[in-house]
Design brief:
alpha/beta
Length: 222
């Protein structure tokens, strides 16, 4: 068994029932992705549009792709119809553009709304109150070719694990409030949070989708 296959097996064994894993494969070569694929992994996450589009034709057709990075508006058209989910919708403008391009392409795009609770200003996303207002105003009803499946968030980049756990609880609380604000939302059931170094805390707070790279593939080679 390769080290990558072993890592996948070990992480899978640590995940509770109902928690799925995105293998974050950015900056890793297709050979390593294939090792993960052969170990049974089908869901991969990329954060750069160019790298994602280059890898898609090199991987088996049943590979599923999540786009997890900051998505520039001029890159939306090239991704629509190619990914199973865009996890990082961080503005209403981006959401509307994804919707417009999805309608044009005749596809429905599944997305997650990115919540910003982290301390760093560099992180993208909606503040919880902005996102709750979006659902309170029922602006999602204007979408024609986009399905909002839940929320995604990141904890502050810190060694203070209490702070990290608090961030995850805040993201989870926002997700729950949206479900209360709009109980008729269908298929709003994904809470994506947690990475290699903090996913057990994320799962404790309610995450059902974790994004794991380093713990599978080792440190990135830039």
């Amino acid at each position: 068994m390769t080290p990558i296959a072993q890592h996948i097996q070990e992480i899978r064994a640590s995940l509770p029932a109902g928690v799925r894993m995105v293998a974050v494969s950015k900056f890793h070569p297709v050979e390593e992705l294939m090792e993960a694929y052969e170990a049974g992994q089908r869901l991969f996450g990329e954060s750069r549009q160019q790298e994602l589009l280059a890898k898609i034709p090199q991987m088996p057709a049943d590979t599923q792709w999540h786009f997890i990075g900051h998505l520039q508006t001029n890159k939306v058209r090239s991704l629509v119809g190619k990914v199973a989910m865009i996890e990082s919708v961080d503005t209403e403008r981006l959401l509307d553009l994804i919707d417009k391009e999805s309608e044009r392409a005749g596809v429905t795009t599944r997305v997650l709304m990115q919540v910003h609770v982290a301390r760093e200003e560099t992180k993208f996303g909606f503040y919880p109150e902005e996102l709750e207002a979006y659902f309170s105003d029922r602006r999602f009803e204007q979408l024609r070719a986009t399905h909002i499946c839940g929320v995604m968030g990141m904890a502050s980049n810190t060694d203070d694990m209490e702070r990290v756990a608090r961030d995850f609880r805040d993201i989870a609380a926002c997700y729950q409030r949206i479900k209360e604000i709009a109980p008729d939302l269908r298929g709003f059931d994904v809470l994506s949070m947690g990475m290699s170094h903090d996913y057990p805390l994320a799962i404790e707070a309610g995450s059902n989708l974790v994004r794991i790279g380093t713990a599978i593939f080792g440190p990135r080679e830039y």
